[in-house]
Amino acid sequence: MIATIGLSAWVALSGDANAASLFSPGAASLVRKSTEPFGLMTAPLPYGSVREKWGDVQRHLDDEMVQLALCDGDREHCASEAALRLLSIVDIGRERGGRALLGAINRAINLAIHPMSDLAQYGKEDVWTSPLVTFTHGAGDCEDYAIAKYAALRLAGIAPEDLRVLIIHETFRNEDHALTAVRFDGHWLALDNRRMAMIEDDDMRQSRPRYVMGSDGVNYYENPPALANAQDPTPERQFVSLTSP
């Protein structure tokens, strides 16, 4: 697990002699807020299991997105039942718009995948699978749901810069958990396999963000504050095992 590293202080300096100091009430407005979920600063993850697993997922996902695009254009001749099942969920989202699209895909994938631990399914822990593998098996755990939603939302037209896969630490369960985050109207919404309703990141008070993944790779949260009053791990001692569905 990783040790705390300090959150860098990002201060916007003003030439105005009356600009707020770090000790004035206006100081908070001068600190740069991250555009990532939770509004906290992140830094690129240089190495480790999370980076390796996400890189592997991205490589498989690039191949599968081509296959899904071909099947999407010619459903009649698509040879992959898994692709057709995933595309049917994308269609449900496309029939709607805005927030309803996100909610429809979240709900449909939650219902389409049977929760099963990696140990039960593969005989080992922490296996991250691409969407077509997950839909072929019809089962998976939290990161498999999250990756499938990430792919489905991309197919439904959500821009890559508005999509993330998160690893958070749930303090009330004392375990790590993966979910999808989507930026909508300037707010990040969490799409979780454990609930049908979407919630904003600001409302996730029992969670400590650890890693954020997207089209640009993996970042880690530098020093998550007391969302859950817990100490955060450092990349140098990182190990994440997502063992529960």
Description:
The protein has helices at residues 49-73, 81-94, 98-112, 118-122, 131-137, 142-155, and strands at 42-44, 114-115, 139-140, 163-170, 175-184, 187-191, 199-200, 207-214, 217-221. The chain is built from six helices and nine strands, in the order βαααβααβαββββββ. The two termini are 21 Å apart. The strands form two sheets. The protein has a seven-stranded antiparallel β-sheet. With 245 residues, the protein is α+β, with helices and mostly antiparallel strands. The chain has one domain: Roll (C8orf32 fold), CATH 3.10.620. Helices cover 33% and strands 18% of the residues. A hairpin with a 7-residue loop joins strand 6 (187-191) and strand 7 (199-200). The longest helix is centred in the first third of the chain and has 25 residues, at 49-73.
Order of SSEs, N→C? EHHHEHHEHEEEEEE
> In the CATH hierarchy, what is the class?
Alpha Beta
Average pLDDT, rounded to a whole number, is 84
Indicate how many domains the architecture comprises: 1
